[in-house]
Amino acid sequence: MKNEEQARSLFGISLSDRPRWKQFLICSSGFFFGYLVNGICEEYVYNRLQFSYGWYFTFVQGWVYIFLIYLQGFTPKQMVNPWKTYVKLSAVLMGSNGLTKGSLAFLNYPAQLMFKSTKVLPVMVMGAFIPGLKRKYPPHEYLSAVLLVVGLILFTLADAHTSPNFSVIGVLMVSGALIMDAFLGNLQEAIFTMNPGTTQTEMLFCSTLVGMPFLIPPMLFTGELFTAWSSCSKHPYVYGVLVFEAMATFIGQVSVLSLIALFGAATTAMVTTARKAVTLLLSYLIFTKPLTEQHGSGLLLISMGIILKMLPDNKSPKKRSTAPPPPPMVENEVNSEDNRFQIGIEEAEEKRPLV
């Protein structure tokens, strides 16, 4: 019922009048493009420049989002949900973004990727408890998610010995982001489900605008606001990288929201997990790193999980009576039934004893 009332589009490309596989391909392509660029930019800023200001960078990214949405012509007058709908969602979104970016100061990218790759499992579990969803998934989808997660962890751990960078603080930060992600996708799906008129642009605009004030307390508490401002002022080209990253991530974010609206939070989480595997594989192909047997095992499990997810659901239809329905009565049959009924009454009158 959820995707039938609202016509969906992605950057002017109509989705509603296309078959499901084309919808999935278009949304996934936008997501892959946006977040592949995002990964490259994050690797450059955090590892090459050694700038680890997750909260501040998320704050800058939010302003870029709002500006891009303004250029698209969206205004608050076009909203179909009240502002209070986005308060909880915005707090979770900004917390997740800030903790994810900030954890890169304590974890290397493969280590963070290993933790974030497990997101699909808590998303599926949490969907059963979110009001308005109460999702229940068939067993093969849980098995698919487990194969995908285990495969990606195996692939990631195969490279962990080359550049280990683990920290208790980093693990706590990325674990907090993981819990928030489990709520985030399901809350977004619940809003799309309960009010199908909600657009992806409204969702991103409101959650960003409402969520940005939540970033100020941690920036002030940690002193990151002033430190990041001072560091970026000495290297102003960093802002160029951040704006470029935000523009690419904007495409990815709108594509993700389209996936959630059309296919649900769990399917979207599996797509984001598969994207992490593609990112790692590309890094090996581009930089010609050697692939070991453990890499091959991980890729095999990931492929099995994706194939299992693509299998159609074999839901048994409700049992119906096998007896064929009675043929409709035509006018002559109705008249003959009335005649037989009338004759029966007359015969009963004749056989009644006289008093």
From TrEMBL:
Compartment list: Membrane
Transmembrane stretches, start-end: 53-74, 113-130, 142-160, 166-184, 204-221, 241-262
Principal cellular location given in the protein's record: membrane
Pfam families reported in the protein's UniProt record: UAA
Region (Disordered): 315-338
Gene Ontology cellular-component terms listed: membrane
GO MF assignments: antiporter activity
UniProt entry keywords in alphabetical sequence: Antiport, Membrane, Transmembrane, Transmembrane helix, Transport
Membrane topology reported for the UniProt record: Multi-pass membrane protein
Family: Belongs to the nucleotide-sugar transporter family. UDP-galactose:UMP antiporter (TC 2.A.7.11) subfamily.
Protein name: UDP-galactose/UDP-glucose transporter 4
Organism: Abeliophyllum distichum
